[in-house]
Here is the input.
Amino acid sequence: MADPIALDRSAETWEVAEALDQLATDRGTHRQRAAQAQAYFAELEGNDRDLPVAPLGEVGRLWRTQLRGSVGLVVLLIVFTVVAAVATQTLPRLLGSLVSSAESMPTDGVRGLLLLIVGVVGLQAIFTYLAARWEVIVGQRMTAKLREKAVRDALSLPLGRIERASSGDLTTRLTQDSNVVGDTLRNDVPQVLLAAITSITILLGMVLNSPLLTVPTLLGLPLIVWASRRFLRRAPAAYLYAGSVDSRLNASVLETVDCVRLVRTLRLENARLDDLADRFQLVSEAQRYTLGLRLRLFFALEVAYNWPLVPTLLLGVFARSQGWIDIGTLTTAVLYSLSWPAPVNRLVQTLGGVLTGVVSAARVTGLDLRDRDAEAQHSMPPRGTDRGTDLRCDEVAFSYDGGHDVLDQLDLTIPAGESVAVVGASGSGKSTLARLLSGIAAPGRGSVTLGGVEVSTIPLPELRAKVALVTQEHHVFTGSLRDNIGLSRQQLTDSDIVAALQAVGAGPWLACLQEGLDTQLGVDGLSLSPARAQQIAIARILAADPPVMILDEATSLLDPTTALAVERSVAGDRRTVLAIVHRLDIAETADRVVVMDGGRIVESGPPNRLRDSAGVYAQLWSTWAGQTPGSGENRPTQGRTASTTCRSDGAEGESSDRLGWLTGFTSRCLDGDVLIPSRRDPTQTRRELTRGTES
Ligand SMILES: Nc1ncnc2c1ncn2[C@@H]1O[C@H](COP(=O)(O)OP(=O)(O)OP(=O)(O)O)[C@@H](O)[C@H]1O
Here is the structure.
């Protein structure tokens, strides 16, 4: 996979600026240019680690969806805003009338006018208050809905897509981008609305007062339009770019924090700081570019909206001297000219905020896009007739990102109820096979079926109910032990949960817990070792009782005896099981062993038959048996069990999981390609990691 950091580095700021300028001058509609900008950045990034960004046009759809159900509130908001703006703009006219008629009008008339002015000021204050209050109510409602939608979209993203994306990108969208959209909806959009309505009412008031004295203000308008258009041509792409590099900075910070122990163990602090500095450099360059765009806009607009005051005054004095207007009209025109810059200034100041919000909304809406992924097909009508739970691969080929085929002409049939152990060298394609069988990815060629139905076309809920994939990754949710297991299936009884825990060898340490299934886990609760967490992850799936289970080194952190017992429990009840294993004593317990090499199945058969033949498995076995003390012919390893002694706090004591913990920890950090900045040679670092693990 191309290195995103290296690609970013090659994109010097001037190149970005040049490309942005080019985009801005290209012909085409605003929407076409936004699409071009997105295509450009996709190319610049040269990888699909970032989640998709919705076309800017989609943002309107998102906001319309958010508005649904709040239309009444929005209408009220607009009414309050318009009334407040009109009241504000009536004041200069009333003051002008007061000035022009002060001498001629009787005292009662002046008093009436003064009362009217006081009334209008009161009206303006009340409606400004109501508008401000409604802005917060509407904004908060929409923000809450948006957050819910973003989290829902993130949770329903295809697994393959989440795996490809960096965690920083997803986190940035769910936190920072969602916050920005919320702020925009709560603050910037109402401000823009109020400023736009106020500007229009001022302009209308000016024209009604004196078309002649409106001319200087109108002369500034072309400059406003030109500067705004220029800004809007360049800004979307620039803000998109800024959002993207910001995500990468966050990803680096998150990953460093996530793997902080490993960073310390391997003394990678300086490498991580260098990586952060490089990414921060890109962020500050992008921010400098967007700041430059804003400053140029502000400068042009400052000139455009400040200059009418003096010409209006001069023109007004001249018109008065000619007797074309009275003193009240002149006063009103000057008051309008004085009040004109404020809303226009507010409009411009909040424009940058609105644009940032639109771009963040495009990034949040991007979570809703499901193109380019196998899982998109799960919404297609199922192909084939459902005939149970046998798994079948026919002439399957698969490649990652259009690279070489990592699975090639692979044929495999697993009848319902059979347990199959898959063994083979690292990189032979075992995990890829597991991903295809569990529907995370679809084959490039050939077919993968479950009970005769193409896996990639089975609706996701149905597929998830039938096939469970358990990997080395495990997670303990904050909550009770009961909740942690019970969330896999509704209406599980305590005895079901205990049975699932016992099936994964957790019985002894469960007995140590004073609060039993009520024991709180996670933050502020009992902290479990990774091996215990792995037991919980498997128990959770066992409790769900799916007819097909695919285990991808799912017991790697458990001690050998427990691992063996767990794999046997999983295969019980004639469940269909495909287990990827590195330890051959576990493979020996399967009905059949399948040996993979170079993306193909090179051997398949009962373990004892394969062991007695002179094939690949026999060689693997003799190597493994030679390296593993205690292993012997046809005899699974009697491994060391983690000694379980109850500690005073009710948790289990453990002695043999530490190496497993470090191995799991390092592999997690490496698997995500998270830890090693681009300038390091990954092979070298892997070697360092291995040394660190061994020592
Ligand atoms: N996300 C990915 N993107 C690109 N290539 C990948 C990806 N995942 C795996 N590969 C490549 O596909 C090939 C098969 O990998 P796979 O993980 O399926 O093998 P494996 O037999 O499970 O290896 P291991 O035992 O080390 O887990 C390898 O060459 C690997 O580098």
